Amino acid sequence: MANGPAQHHILSVLVENKFGVLSRVAGLFSQRGYNIFSLAVSPTEDERLSRMTIVVDAESAPLEQVTKQLNKVIPVIKITELSPEEAVERELMLATVKAGAEFRSQVTELAAIFEAKIVDVGYDAMTLLVAGTPDKLDAISDLLAPFGIIESQRTGRIALPKLARQPTKLRAVKDRGA
Predict the structure, then answer these.
(1) Residues 6 or more apart from 88 whose CB is under 8 A from it?
(2) Beta strand pairing status for 117-121 and 149-154?
(3) pLDDT-based confidence at 96, cuts 50/70/90?
(4) 88-161 adopts what CATH topology?
(5) 131: which of 7, 93, 143, 174 is 20 to 30 A away, CA to CA?
(6) Identical fold at 8-81 and 88-161?
(7) Least confident of 22-31, 136-145, 164-173
(8) pLDDT tops 80 at residue 3
(9) Nearby residues of 66 by Cβ (< 8 Å), 6 or more positions away
(10) What is the DSSP string of the chain?
C-alpha cells in the first residue's frame, strides 16, 4: 500500500447465538458506511453464545461509535477491542496454485517453509492450506503469485486476548510454632 499499512480496529464481540444476529451486524456496518475488512463468527464453548471477530477500518469507523451502535442493534454480551500486541490473531487460507511438473517441487518447498499443507493435487495445480498471521498469509501469497494463483480464499482474522505471562505470587505462610 502506498500510504503505509491501514489502521484497523479488531473487535471481539460476544453475542447471543440467535437467528439474524449476523445479518443485523452486517446491516449496521453497511448503513453507516463502515468498511469491514473481515468478519468471522462461530459458536463458543457455550452453545448459547457466539463470538464475532470483526476487523474494521479505523478511519471509516470510529471505535466509540461502532461499540455504541453494536450495543443498540444486537444482543451483545461483551465487546472487547484487541490490540495486536495484546492478542493472538490467526487466519486461514486455501490457495490453488499452478504447479506443473517443472514447478511442483518449488511450490512444495515453499509450502514447507511456511508450514502449509498440500491438501489437493491435480495434474497441473496444487491446493495449499496455510494458517498463520495475516502478514504470513500475505507473504506466501506474494511468493506464490509468480507461479500463478488460480484462486484463493481467506477466512478473515480470528483473535483472542493473550494470556497473562506473569506467574502468580505465592504468599509465605508463617509457621505458628511447633
Answers:
(1) 159, 160, 161, 162
(2) unpaired
(3) very high
(4) Alpha-Beta Plaits (3.30.70)
(5) 7
(6) yes
(7) 164-173
(8) no
(9) 9, 11, 34, 56
(10) -TT-SPPEEEEEEEEE--TTHHHHHHHHHHHHTPPEEEEEEEE-SSTTEEEEEEEEETTTS-HHHHHHHHHHHS-EEEEEE--GGGEEEEEEEEEEEE--TTTHHHHHHHHHHTT-EEEEE-SSEEEEEEEE-HHHHHHHHHHHGGG-EEEEEE---EEEEPPP-SPPPPPP------
Q: How far, in Å, CA of 62 to CA of 144, rounded?
A: 35
Q: Where are the domains of the chain?
A: 8-81, 88-161
**Class of domain 8-81 (CATH, top level):** alpha beta
Q: The sheet that has 76-81: what strands, in order across it?
A: 36-43, 49-57, 8-16, 76-81
Q: Is the pLDDT of residue 71 over 50?
A: yes
Give me the torsion for CA of 64, 70, 72, 75, rounded to 10°: -140
Which residues have CB under 8 Å from 36's CB, separation 6+?
Answer: 26, 29, 54, 55, 56
Mean per-residue pLDDT, 94-113: 96
